[in-house]
Amino acid sequence: MSSQTSTTTRALPTITLIVPALNEEKLIVETVEQIVEVAEGRFADYEVLLIDDGSTDATGNLMDGLAGRNPRIRVFHNDGNIGLGASYHLGVAHARFEYVMLLCGDGGMPASSLPPIFDKIGVADIVVPYCENLKQIKGPGRYRLSQTYTTLLNTLFGLRLNYYNGLPVHRVELVRSVGGRSDGFGFQAEILVPLLRAGHSYVQVGVKGAEKTNRSSALRWKNVVSVSRTLGGLFVQVYLKRGQGRSAPGAPGQVYER
Fold this sequence. Notes:
This protein is of the alpha/beta class. It is built from 9 helices and 9 strands.
């Protein structure tokens, strides 16, 4: 079901931007400074939560330096590497504003791609970015894996997203209502699927990604097991516990036109 986006002027939202990083001393300062530059003036208020996920280089110290120069920045240091999903949920637990978004410390989502995403905040409950240049920034194997994963999720749960790992913007209370246990590649689907199946609205936004690599850890046995467990848990939640939770099979979220 589609609905035209309202032209009514929306009040500026508030947002928490969560930026985990592991051993990104060469990129973290530039990445965060670019994020802050784009965020300025676009929100009624915002904060940047930097998560040092057990780095063994100077990443943590550089994060502390950024926070010392900007009161909007807070830093959390994980004792060890707990993973992207767990770091995201740590940020969500400490978020102080209405919306929350994950951004990677390696600059995989360029700051130049953020304005069209930010502009859609408030149009729907969830803003779902997807990479228009996915085929160009991933090697053939990673691209096929990504497409297979998206097709599988859409088929299993009756959805029609272009991408599940595109760093969505959520209302923070929605993420907290879902919870989530996965710290692996499936953690974003673990959040998106229940919310969309529960009928929350979303808008998809095509952007350009910057990542350029032919290598991936997605097929490591540990990650395959993690994603399989996440998908299995989602299947049980959606189809076998349909009377016990918020998720309503057959009622995917309302889609707003881009």
